[in-house]
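To whoever is on call:

I kicked off a structure prediction for a single chain this morning and the downstream step that reads the tokens threw a length-mismatch warning. I double-checked the sequence; it's 454 residues and nothing unusual in it as far as I can see. Pasting both halves so you can look.
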Amino acid sequence: MPTVINKMVQVYPKQLQFLESRALWRAFVGGIGSGKSFIGALDMVRRSKPGRLYLVTAPTYPMLSDATFRSFVGLAQQLDIVGVGDIKSSPPPSIKLRTGAEVLFRSTDNPETLRGPNLSGVWMDEASLSKQEAFDILIGRLREGGEMGWLTSTFTPKGKQHWTYKTFGTGALDTELIHAQSDENPFLPPEYVANIRKKYTAQQIKQELGGAFVEGGGNHYFPHNWPRYIGTGDAYRIRDGVDRWRHVLKADCVRMIALDWAMGKPKRDQLEKLWLTGELTGDCTAFVVADMSNDDDGLLFLLAAVNERIPMASNAPRLSELCRRWQPVIVAGDDDNLSETMLLECRRYRDIPSIKCVPIRSKNKVTRSQAAIVRAERGKILLPDSEPRAHLGAPWVDMLSDQLSSFTGADGEPDDVADAVSILGRLADEFRPGEDCDDQGPVLGSAGFDGGVW
């Protein structure tokens, strides 16, 4: 006989509103720390029926195992509705509840694999990081026992152009969206939201903490609005107020090259060329050269950027050429992009200094870009002015600006230059600690740096 659950679980008003909703398609949309995964798991437990099959999804298997699955198992154990022998954690994971229901756990990274069993209900965790194709396939599986099943989703919004807004946020029939801000969750540490605000841009505060659908919410950089500098021989000339200028000596800067080089894995648009030529060129390689001012501002003057499709065997020679030209003190790359073989290859070139490996610690691209995004919004990443003849029509500025403007962190998009810029941001924070830990929150607005103070 199925177990009847009679346990008390604390929720706050927005979570209770979500639990009590009877809409066929429901979404709990909130900022980080608003209790999305907890309420998604609790909702699934409460609505599961004996002998029925349910599905829980996350965008990737690492997210599924590290977050969603753990949240569900933790709650099920807290409610005492699952035994050790009822938990299958090895891929593909599943759980048999003492309520008599079975719950499957799957990733949406390949939506076609979601075609299969008929289901009574689905919970899509972090739905805004999944493709709409996954949602479209899943709602077609909701027909177990000849009954129409339900689907709920929990996520942080990604802008009004995203499929999750069009699906849940436009007041469609049989659909309800519950919106919660991070600071509405009374179970968070008191200082949590205030500390996170210091590290976020104005747009990210609205989206990541306020849980709001922000126009252009999928984008993070606004390089066309970044302040400009003029090279004057031995210094960088920058605006210091409306009618004032100041100079930063190049001798007082630290020169750096950040790299993101191709490791030999072709993307779809390269497969035809690979078939015709047999040449494995991999993804594009990116190098970004910058000077960082050796003062409290820690300004990053971007000097050059390269984004080329380079054969893997040519990465080290190309870097050597760049180092001869720019003579950097620091060369750095993400540790997942620096194989021991490539590091040994670089040691053969005397122009390349010892390469610094910057740890990514399994963080996604947007999280790794955080330091650069915040620094850029505060007007501390500068591009060359187009007026001086030396920089007139510099094609790399347009290339870099276009790629950064379109960067969302999604898989498959051109992001080699964005990865290199994110490394520069993390290096700048490392050498200028405290940049994002002061008491002044971002005040420059959702459009990024507007050029008004330089």
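Update from on-call: the warning came from a stale cache, not from the record. Cleared it. Sanity check on the structure: DSSP finds 14 helices and 17 strands in the chain.
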